[in-house]
Amino acid sequence: MNPPSFRVIPSPRALLATTALLLPAPVLADPLAEQIKADLPNLLTLYRDLHAHPELSLQEKTTSARLATEAKKLGFTVTPGVGGNGVVAVLENGPGPVLLVRTDLDGLPVEEATGLPYASQVKAVTREGAQTRVMHACGHDLHMTAWVGTARRLAALKERWSGTLVMIGQPAEEVGVGARAMLADGLYTRFPKPQFALALHDVADLPAGTVGYSRGHMSANVDSVDILVKGVGGHGASPHTTRDPIVLASRIVGTLQTLVSREIAPQETAVVTVGSFLAGSKHNIIPSEARLQLTVRSYSAETRRHLLEGIARIARGEAIAAGLPEEHMPVVTTKEEEFYPSVFNTGPLTERLVAAWTRRFGAERVVEVPPTTGGEDFSRYSLSDKSIQSMLFVVGGVPRARWDAAGGDPTKLPSLHSPRWAPDAEPTLQTAIEAMSTAALDILAK
């Protein structure tokens, strides 16, 4: 998942900070919680193995095969190699709705610094050819283990539900292409098409044992934009004979800040961040070009359009002001292949599942969180068909003692994508599996 992570609305956070127990007894008493608890030793072994052996985006062959094997044991019809390294597991159980449950598979090019006994020592080569360490710094190992745990519970509780369960392991979430690849490879034509879609994500700003949700937008539109700023290079001692692209690019960076502060309504969310500025090679040489890399985030399609058009307008306007001819205008490229559409939680499904979780866990463990400006390509499963109701929810992963020591302030704790991020595996998995199983049983209830 693309950070920043989720922030708790203040009033629930204050309540959570005073909660003393790690995992209070569920309000709704049935065998589900005990069954999950009994399965946890085996699931924790799986989790630690997945954590110790992460694979980069588009390289998830062993990880995908591991999930396929687990699903086959439970009687699912399993198809590997969907959209690259994706896996689709289908369990038909009579008439009823079709529910899709997604997990993501890929790790990140991060060197782990958690100090865990099962910390990753994996090395790999990126798509760009660079050697890197690899870590599950976003919790996809936990997501996969919860996926397996949920599949086990649903397979064991077939008498309680009716319909079709489609569980997918999606590759390449971290680079934004996995969902699109699975859909393009016939996810909704080769396999039962869902009426409902669910996914979960661990977060580093809620204590373990907590379920979080947002109404409506859960994550942002995320665009990557490149700007090639052209100039006329020359000697640093004679700047008047050049058109300095560093000065022009600096003006573009400064003016871009007005897009959000002066062109977007204060009630709207928008982010324009210049994350990379590359130019030049020596003290006394004015280069012929500079390159900027931007991340652009929004919720609404209209705000997204305004930001992208504004970036192109500002880049061109500053070049004109600098006296550059038409052939030296900046080249602005929006990288559509890296676009993450905003995740939008469907209203009826959200209210239905929040009620189910509140009955099970109690109101103190089910909290509303504001939407994040991070990115998630889970949105593509419902964007491809507006009739599909979908929901992405989160589970807290911060160890209770660390949460309390930080006073409920997530800025004092490791974030997602940090080399030090280590969720409290046992209570987080228990909550994640219980929440996803509860949601699935509610949707597919007889």
UniProtKB/TrEMBL annotation:
Q: How is the cofactor bound?
A: The Mn(2+) ion enhances activity.
Instruction: Spell out the molecular function terms from Gene Ontology.
Output: metal ion binding; N-acetyldiaminopimelate deacetylase activity
Keywords, A to Z, come to: Hydrolase, Manganese, Metal-binding, Signal
Q: Which cofactor(s) does the record list?
A: Mn(2+)
Taxonomic superkingdom: Bacteria
Q: Name one GO biological process term.
A: diaminopimelate biosynthetic process
Domain Peptidase M20 dimerisation stretches: 215-318
Residues the record lists as binding Mn(2+):
138, 140, 174, 201, 417
Q: Please report the name of this protein according to its UniProt entry.
A: Peptidase M20
Q: Which organism is it from?
A: Cystobacter ferrugineus
